[in-house]
Amino acid sequence: MEKIIRNLTLVLVLQLVLAVVLGLSGSDLATQVPDTTLVSFKAADIDGISIEGEGSTLTLARKDGRWILPEHKGLPANPGQVSGLLESLSNLKHGLPVATSVAAQTRFKVAEKEFERKIVLSQNSAQKAVLYFGTSPGLRQVHARSDGMEATLSVAFANHQAPVKVDDWLDKSMLAIPMEEIEAIEVAGLTMTREEVAAAEKENKEKTPTTGDAPKKEPQWKIQPLAQGETPNQEEVAKLARTMAHLSIDGLEAADAEITAAMDKPSLELAIKRKDGTRIVFKVAKIEKKNLLLVKSSAREELFRIAGYVGDNLLKNAKKEVLLTLPAKKEEKASTPPPQSTLPVEPPGIPAASTTPPLQSTLPVEPPGIPAASTTPPQEPVAPKQP
Known about the structure:
Layout: H1 2-25, E1 48-53, E2 56-63, E3 66-69, E4 75-76, H2 79-90, E5 97-99, H3 102-107, E6 117-123, E7 126-133, E8 142-146, E9 152-155, E10 182-187, E11 190-195, H4 198-205, E12 207-208, E13 212-213, E14 220-224, E15 231-232, H5 234-245, E16 251-252, H6 257-264, E17 268-274, E18 279-287, E19 292-297, E20 303-305, H7 308-317, H8 320-323, E21 324-325
Antiparallel strand pairs: 1-2, 1-6, 2-3, 3-4, 5-9, 6-7, 7-8, 8-9, 10-11, 10-17, 11-14, 12-13, 15-21, 16-20, 17-18, 18-19, 19-20
């Protein structure tokens, strides 16, 4: 009996020791409360983001308050997209683990060397957070873990929120010129100068008690040179200006021999003078064989793709016959007027006299009451036949 008690006591002691060891050296899962933040950082403090995956690494940096792509000549990045990524990462919750072993990290692709995405957030080149994202267990869910954590979690995120292609991070409006900064447009041998109407500006600033701000009016455009009878088509000029104010690119394009030749003889060349006096020249080329529409700005070295409908509308609207209201063409030959009659005009109500003289009769006129003599010669009597 004593032997049994001694064995049970030994088992109990071993269980207590094991519990203490697990509590001290085990994973930190027991100390984690569900729905706590997975990583803690302030978005305003982050000035560097590294995204690795699919065999590529993309770097974003904040410089002078703007997010750029430092490894691609400092091209501007989409600020809203960067802010959205940082917000999504800061809102990740710890949740409950789906696995706790190191081997499971490889299976769920959140291991140090095996992952779908690795995101490093830094401040002044010092790492603030390292996150690994792997396979997806469901819609808008992905397996993840932070650096130093053994457990694999399921969090509300998607790997496409952290793309590794440059085109996906570009500020697509980098070539656009805000409407209020456009002073003049030069295209098709015409110069279209913006004219601000003082009365319209005053009306825009005034407020009425019933409608609030007065509606903003479209600027008027003066065009030079104009031939006799030509006038600006204000609607079409305003449309062209809006196109340049909202010009959007699709991505970067590498120049080869064919593209270089096309840009040397562009389909369209257009210049915009800004209010600060700078002049920016845009060249647009359409390459049918490659189904490409390209744009080059004198303000940047790079060549960019634009959507087909954007380029086609630009090529269509930037034509002289569209921007001007042309005078109506005169008929080449005037119609020959009908010959004027030399006959006297009869008074109304009196039938016009015939111009053909009446035929004169050659027969003698008989006196009244006497029958007219026959014109047939009399026949001689026929003598009776002798028996």
